[in-house]
Amino acid sequence: MPMIGMGTCCRRDPKGRREFISALEAFYATGGSHIDTAQSYDNHADVKQALSAMERDQVWVTSKVNMLAVTSHKTADQQVRAAVESSLIELGVDQVDLMLLHEPACENNWQREAAEASKQLLAATKGAANSSAVVVDDGINVAAASRCTVEAWRALVKQQHSGKCRAVGVSNFGVRHLSALLGAGLPLPAVNEVEFHPWVSHEQYRLVEWCHRHRVAVTAFGSFGSSRRVKRGNALEVPAVVAEAARVRGVSAHEILLAWTLQQNISVIPQTNSLAHMRSNLAVHEIRLTGSEIKQISTLGGSAYPKDWKEYGKIIHKLTVKP
Ligand SMILES: NC(=O)c1ccc[n+]([C@@H]2O[C@H](COP(=O)([O-])OP(=O)(O)OC[C@H]3O[C@@H](n4cnc5c(N)ncnc54)[C@H](OP(=O)(O)O)[C@@H]3O)[C@@H](O)[C@H]2O)c1
């Protein structure tokens, strides 16, 4: 899988469709060869259009099964298979290079649905002893819920065996979820796509370490700091160590953050509409940070968090130093 890809999330404005397709085409023309999409981004048709102008074997396509839509009303196997098959049709490909379970989120649906079923059963039997068919813990069928993620993963592994997915993986899975897959005797995912930037928690660093130790590749989103995280803090400036690393190399702070991620053997998928940013993002593998810089950037989490993501983006952009 190419270590530098292009994200495609969340541009829903229909007027932006042409711009979006042009950006993917420009990314490919600039040498980019990895596109990250998902069922829930609702852009498979646009990705298909962009792919029609590309050599299929020259581009790596990652998509994701929308786990928020997986309910307990059908088997996980049926739903994951349907999600993969419809994604292939929407993308106009015979095989997707990497299909991920987008999040371990079906647990919530299954817990809610199991709780509702339990309530109905208890009401029907008026609490009679023969309600033991459902294991209720505070109204929640815990066993069914934790099975759901494992069953969805088992189903996705089957899709890989059927040849519809070249590789399979997960996204937003924690060590708890990955351990459950191991415990079920299933192969581990090829990739775990997670939020990763210098401001993530120690737990996220431990997750990356766990993945690498178990030979699960890691892809980062939110490389410049995500809205959820950056809203927690106070400072609105590029950390001095990032600014200095950018200044001495004549590159931007964004490039330094991507290089910092790549040098930890984590692939990146920044999204951009700008040709200049595409070019610089694709070239970040040429930037070599020193061990000391990597360490200093890695300890930023305990210090400052910019307040607002958009504001942070603007400020980090302003401070960009170009040759
Ligand atoms: N698996 C998941 O749950 C999950 C969650 C979130 C995102 N994702 C994936 O990750 C991708 C990235 O999303 P993200 O939230 O991490 O956003 P991001 O790509 O980190 O940030 C996008 C913003 O960064 C700017 N940008 C990109 N490269 C730049 C550069 N070199 N210099 C200056 N600005 C630059 C873009 O503006 P310009 O257009 O002006 O360059 C855009 O405003 C998504 O598109 C999606 O594919 C996955």
UniProtKB/TrEMBL annotation:
Keyword Cell membrane: no
Superkingdom of origin organism: Eukaryota
Molecular functions (GO terms): oxidoreductase activity, acting on the CH-OH group of donors, NAD or NADP as acceptor
Residue(s) at site: Lowers pKa of active site Tyr: K64
Binding site for substrate: H102
Residue span, NADP-dependent oxidoreductase domain: 13-298
Entry-linked Pfam families: Aldo_ket_red (PF00248)
Active-site residues per Swiss-Prot or TrEMBL entry: Y41
Family annotation (SUPFAM superfamilies): NAD(P)-linked oxidoreductase
Keyword Phosphoprotein: no
Keyword tags: NADP, Oxidoreductase
Protein family membership: Belongs to the aldo/keto reductase family.
Protein name in the entry: NADP-dependent oxidoreductase domain-containing protein
Organism name: Cymbomonas tetramitiformis
